[in-house]
UniProtKB/TrEMBL annotation:
One of its GO terms (biological process) is proteolysis. Residues 1-10 have a biased composition (Basic and acidic residues). This is Pro-apoptotic serine protease NMA111. It is found in: Nucleus. CDD domains: cpPDZ1_ScNma111-like, cpPDZ_AthDEGP7-like. GO terms for cellular component: nucleus. Nuclear serine protease which mediates apoptosis. PROSITE patterns: PDZ (PS50106).
Amino acid sequence: MELEWERDSTRIGSSEDEDVEDLNDVPFKEKTDNAADWRETINKVVPAVVVLRTTACRAFDTELPSSGYATGFVVDKLRGIILTNRHVVKPGPVVAQAIFVNHEEIPVYPIYRDPVHDFGFYHYDPGAIQFLNYEEIPLAPEAACVGLDIRVVGNDSCEKVSILAGTIARLDRDAPTYRKDGYNDFNTFYIQAASGTKGGSSGSPVIDRQGRAVALNAGGRVSTSSAFFLPLVRVVRALRLIQNSRDSNTGKGEAALIPRGTLQVTFHYKGFDEVRRLGLQRETEQMVRCASLPGETGMLVVHSVVPGGPAHLQLQPGDVLVRVNGEITTQFLKLETLLDDNVDQKIEIQIERGGTSLTINIVVQNLHSITPNHFLEVSGAVIHPLSYQQARNFRFHCGLVYVSNPGYMLSRAGVPRHAIIKKFSDAEISRLEELISVLPNLSPGAQVPIEYITHKDRHRSKFALVTTDCHQWYDTPKIYTRDDSFGLWIARPAIQPEALLLSSCIANPGQGLKEETFAFSCESNLVEDMPQNNNLELTDNMGTCHDHASKEVGSRDECDVAINTQVLGDLSINNIVVPNSSSHEAGEIKLENPVITENANSNHPEFATEAEAKAPSPDRVIEPALVLVEVNVPSSCLLDGVSSQNFFGTGVIVHHSQGMGLVAVDQNTVAISASDVMLSFAAFPIEIPGQVVFLHPVYNFALVAYNPSALGAVGASMVCAAELLPEPPLCSGDPVYLVGLRNLQAISRKSTVTNACLSLHVPKADPPCNRAINMEVIELDSDFGYMFTGVLSNKRGKVQALWASFSAKKKSGSSASKDPQFVKGIPIYMISQVVDKITSGANGPSVLINGVKRPMPLVRILEVEFVTRLLSKARSFGLSDDWIQALIKKDPIRRQVLRVKGCLAGSKAENVLKEGDMVLAVNKEPVTCFRDIENACKALENNADKGGKLNMTIFQRGRAVDIVVETDIRDGNGTTRMINWCGCIVQYPHLAVRALGFLPEEGHGVYVTKYYRGSPADRYGLCGLRWIVEVNGKPTPDLDAFANVTKELGSEEFVRIRTINLDGKPQVLTLKQDLHYWPTWELRFDPDTAIWRRETIKALQ
């Protein structure tokens, strides 16, 4: 049975549970009644009913971050108290507003949520309501009875005011079970009626004809029109205690003390027939029937006992409750009253167990003591003591260290939501304070062991390695504590600043620049400076592993972990022996092995056959250069349209020297530089961090640097760079060997090139994300499938292409569960020419790599997306025979011409070339393929006189014309700056967005790429895929202007913003800043330290 509860609280952006609205296909038909009988009542009640717009800012206990609408109603006008459901008040941090019927909107603050039952209270300032006359709705729990005509008044289906009719059918329905791992009410009866409530009506008053609330709407069954109401008896008690703690004139006061007792036992109400089968004695049944009210039909039976609770090992499932403190107790209400009145006191309980009468003395526990009121936030994770709710669901002890949201650091290690942490960094963990005490001892980039258990596999502990953040992806660890006096969660540092400074010094010893000709020993202390390898949850299903690398992060073999730790711990820099490298670049490490060196007699025909027979297979030759690349992207910086957080792929070492190693890999694995990269080598069992140093702005490859000294002496002698063979290029029909990794072992197969220059055309994705353009790739007759990547080589193991994965993102609304992808070969010349520039000294901005600042290359490109067109089609468009013959002479095989598909918005060619133009020649040389354009741009790098301009001949509007087109210069850094404002991520528009051909004229430098669930952006509808061009009337053309404008805004201040979406449609939104839970901050890559640094722009002090 599936039920709807917070589903009655319509959610804007929840990350779990089914869409119940689509399942509720049984329409409710309101019963016929005299409308005049209810008109006066409804007119009186409606002004006191409010729409509650709630936003759960953090995952906590049973809830995930979400935004939605629900209902509440005023129960104390003088003190400003609104009654609603517990799942609307939320157990964790929440921001809420109440909207009255006349559209007056005021902030409300939670002042109480019951630990068990589904009710809670918000407080508001009564003086803030200036234009509405309303009266509070009185509570009358005693009026509820079977057959009573009722009306449910609320925000049903977000219709502002909806009035649903019904008749109470039952007063003794079992409390509904909503989720096995979430909030459920228990130890109470519910009221049932066929009123058909749906999303948005949670917290609605159930009123009678006198205008009294006789129950509180809570949930309903998805597939029927049944609604479930909470009785109000315990609600009235809690309300009176809150009223006594608050001034009737101002509504201000301290947090109310509402005694709540518990045995940590769940009881079920069973009929006498079933109780007799459990062994109830006939005499006991007769006594109970005589002492109970007329119509009593059953007794309370123990259903479950929480381990470690007051009743653990004393009460058992199946025990029949007879007396409490000498009073016959057959009703939930009486039992709860006795428990609440005897908190921290011993009570006497009489039960019958299998026909035997037993008397047990148990101390009643304070229910609030096992209800968490604080949590630790570290690296996006939310960790707090295990609540009674979840302890009951999972059968664990209350108070254990519970992972409500694994965030980045824990999810990267494979620790799931709902995990219980038992050990961390070899320290026993049973309380949250013990975990907090370990944090100051951890340095950035450290790998520490963690032991945890899950409720789905409770009998076996699991072990993983947690890598602490080396970059400042997240704020420093904080402890949030609930303060019901103000309705806020107050944050304080979990680690003292001096401890943070100490750990930073430990992690970055001797930071600084070093000479280019340094030895291995100069690099050893910089290993931890390299980037090291899910919520808060974002809108694009992050946390889903990428297709071509679907592997759980925490599933590494324990033996591998032990080996890695040992190798890293035994690095002896002074004993490193550098192999002979006289035949290679100075300092370059190569294996002295016939695998790499070709047989000296191979040029003699008489020895060729024998030499080839003895030559090792290509996979054995290339294996020392193959690397498994693991990439993890923090949820705090999912830039450039990236939606997944975990990627795997095979890379190849293209450079290996004393000072630096470089690995080439496709951008479907390394999509952005704001990520943690870990490299596992096929030749030696070790895993070390990598640093993204180059992302080609157009082509589908990236370069990742690593520190060779981290391999140790043995590893450095076994790992080597592949021998690249950029020329001659592959041709159709050439035999090649496809070599890659499976379980970190090289495998290969012989294939044949079917197309050596396939023009790649990847459709545009929705939403825009990384997409290769203007590439000619290699196609084979057979491969290992779309998830297998590696290299293409000749029979001697010389690498001729990178066998890469390409993303072909699905369109929005596609039914496919995962993004489609495919594999093709990237000619190795594209990569080798970039590597040559890096190793020989490039002309671009410098980046710190292994302690040395190295200039990175700049790439001159024509920011135009081309597609090919057959000459036969071009003739139909009017292309002259002379040009057709000239193009055939240039390329008699392909017989094609390049056509402009579109210019990138903001490029220098944007106003010169138009869609449909055909490029005939550059500098009087005919052009037939993408490489011709690439070579022409490359020639400009050595010819300053050209000024970066190309003399092109194009076919435009039926005639050939000569034009001058200016090229653009781009670096390989990718996006290096972002701002988080109101929970949305803004950045400069990346290439895939600019490829759409549109940038707002008002300014295009502030592009919203994603937003967080539970943020102000989520609450007020500031979605991604749009530009923010104005804030409060002030232009925001770039990130600097945006930061300056937002810095002037105050917390709780409504802001008017003007946005433009990808279709060019403008929209004006208003949203309120929440600097308490969502400060404004910036993340920027610092090339001088190779660290992503976080800086707060505006926050509450």
